[in-house]
Design goal:
The structure is a single chain. The chain is mainly alpha-helical and 468 residues long. It has three domains: 122 residues, Rossmann fold (3-Layer(aba) Sandwich), CATH 3.40.50; 116 residues, Serine Threonine Protein Phosphatase 5, Tetratricopeptide repeat (Alpha Horseshoe); 173 residues, DNA Cyclobutane Dipyrimidine Photolyase, subunit A, domain 3. The protein is built from 21 helices and five strands. Strands 3-2-1-4-5 form a five-stranded parallel β-sheet, with helices on both faces. The N and C termini lie far apart (71 Å). The chain binds flavin-adenine dinucleotide.
Length: 468
């Protein structure tokens, strides 16, 4: 007798191992693996170009793992699911939960719809170590400060569950839907081709990266993770965002390594949890200041400065290096993300939403929770944010965290021959030194678009105007 047909709806869980919903579906019957590219309700947060590139390759890889059985559709998930469940006489549909506010609402509608059609729906936690509604303060309200969230909430909770195996047997329904290519995710211009040189996409690549990180890199994580030229961070963020790897797999792989590096890495995974908790409990996080007093902040509209920041042409070398790394690789090191974000919102006084929007389009790890929470953190208006008056000085940040200049020289090659002393502040270099290095300010490399000292003072004055 043939087994009942159940749908596994892949979303941000593009993997076979440690996939609770897929495992349950495989136990329940023959599985129709489904992906729906749906941004109908995403509003201003439709998937950006770099993410679409990643998604294309991730789905292609998943489809290979599924022997070409992944069925892809584009459009409104509510309509597509209603059509499929009646077309296939499906008895149940399984998925792992997502936390973007528009998806939470859509999931609720889909559940109601399935109930009225008499089809069972079951959702699982496949993306977080702890559900946002489980990790709460003793009074039942969400944490607003990271340290107690981590120390009491995360470390006080039962340890994250151990990773689950791949379904031991996965009986797949014959293909009858669209292919990955039909989703037309790849951008029309060839810019994205460069991304392929920087990344290996898919579950197997994610597992290989985790293995290398834990066995070779984690030992230097605590001391090395602030230095962008070093390969001392995991670079797991896009794999985690698309669910090619689960946070449980990352957490437990690191647990095997004892010492402070493990704790530091666990804490970073907990920052991800904190961001998701903030997004879940404050769904306006991507659009509104978390601290409403910032609603009166006198942001500047300066399209020219914004454009130069986006293109890595600010004349501030470490900022330009970061923005060009982003453009060329779809990624930027965390230390440099903080520096470029601080420069935009504090030295240029441009709204953090403009920065978040650019990151959203260019990052392969663009993630609504992490991006929104991090931008608000840097801008000073977020939960447990960096105090507004902590304004990164991009010259000293460069000198401290790129001491031999190799990161900056890699992405700003026109300054490569400048001696270290002036690499981060070419505007102070003597004329003969600039000549020798082949640098002509205003021609081969821009003059700085902001005076760091004066713009710092303007930022502090603007902050004071809020009456804080
Ligand atoms: C302005 C700004 C925007 C950001 N936008 C994003 C984004 O869109 N997507 C994204 O995943 N991260 C974002 N981050 C957080 C952080 O920069 C990246 O997660 C990290 O650089 C990814 O590199 P990694 O995987 O090597 O990190 P690792 O240092 O190896 O950390 C491991 C994992 O922990 C999580 N993590 C680390 N730091 C943070 C953090 N500060 N907040 C939340 N989670 C964290 C990530 O999932 C990361 O993959 C942003 C940070 C800033 C300052």
């Amino acid at each position: 007798m043939s087994r009942p047909l159940v749908i596994h709806w892949f979303r941000q869980d593009l993997r076979l191992a440690d996939n609770p919903a897929l495992l349950a579906a495989a136990n329940a019957g023959q599985v129709l693996p489904l992906y729906i590219f749906d941004d109908v309700d995403a509003g201003d947060h439709k998937m950006g170009a770099a993410s679409r590139w990643w998604l294309h390759h991730s789905l292609s890889s998943l489809n290979t793992e599924l022997n070409g059985r992944l069925q892809c559709f584009a459009g409104d998930a509510r309509e597509i699911i209603a059509r499929l469940v009646s077309q296939y006489s499906t008895v149940a549909i399984y998925w792992n939960r997502c936390y973007e506010p528009w998806r939470v609402e859509q999931d609720r509608e889909i559940r109601e719809q399935l109930q009225s059609l008499g089809v069972a729906a079951a959702s699982f936690n496949g993306s977080l170590l702890w559900e946002p509604w489980e990790n709460l303060k003793s009074d039942g309200t969400p944490y607003k400060v990271f340290t107690p969230f981590y120390q009491r909430g995360c470390l006080g909770a039962p340890a994250p569950r151990a990773p689950l195996p791949c379904p031991p047997s996965l009986e797949l329904a014959p293909p009858n839907g669209g292919t990955v290519s039909e989703l037309q995710l790849l951008p029309a211009n060839p810019w994205h081709k460069k991304l392929g040189q920087a990344w290996h996409v898919g579950e197997q690549a994610a597992q290989a990266r985790l293995k290398t990180f834990v066995s070779e890199i984690l030992k230097d994580y605590e001391t090395g993770r602030d230095f962008p030229a070093q390969q001392s961070v995991s670079r797991l963020s896009p794999h985690l965002h698309f669910g090619e790897i689960s946070p449980n797999q990352a957490w437990h792989a690191a647990t095997a390594i004892s010492g402070s590096n493990q704790e530091t890495f666990h804490k970073e995974l907990a920052w991800r949890e904190f961001s998701y908790s903030l997004l879940f409990h404050f769904p306006a996080l991507p659009d509104n200041n978390w601290q409403p007093k910032f609603d009166a902040f006198p942001w500047r509209q300066d399209d020219e400065a914004l454009h130069r920041w986006q293109r890595g042409q600010t004349g501030i070398p470490v900022v330009d290096a970061g923005m060009r790394e982003l453009w060329e690789t779809g990624y930027m090191h965390n230390r440099i993300r903080m520096v470029v974000a601080s420069f935009l919102v504090k030295n240029l006084l441009i709204h953090w939403r403009e920065g978040a929007r650019w990151f959203w389009d260019c990052l392969v790890d663009a993630d609504l929770a992490n991006n929104s929470a991090s931008w608000q953190w840097v801008a000073g208006c977020g939960a447990d944010a960096a105090p507004y008056f902590r304004i990164f000085n991009p010259v000293t940040q460069g000198e401290k965290f790129d001491p031999d200049g190799s990161y900056t020289r890699r992405f700003v090659p026109e300054l490569a021959s400048l001696p270290d002393k002036y690499l981060f502040r070419p505007w102070q270099a003597p004329a003969d030194l600039l000549d020798e290095a082949g640098v002509s300010l205003g021609q081969t490399y821009p003059h700085p678009i902001a005076d760091l000292k004066a713009s710092r003072e303007s930022a502090l004055a603007a902050f004071k105007s809020l009456g804080t």
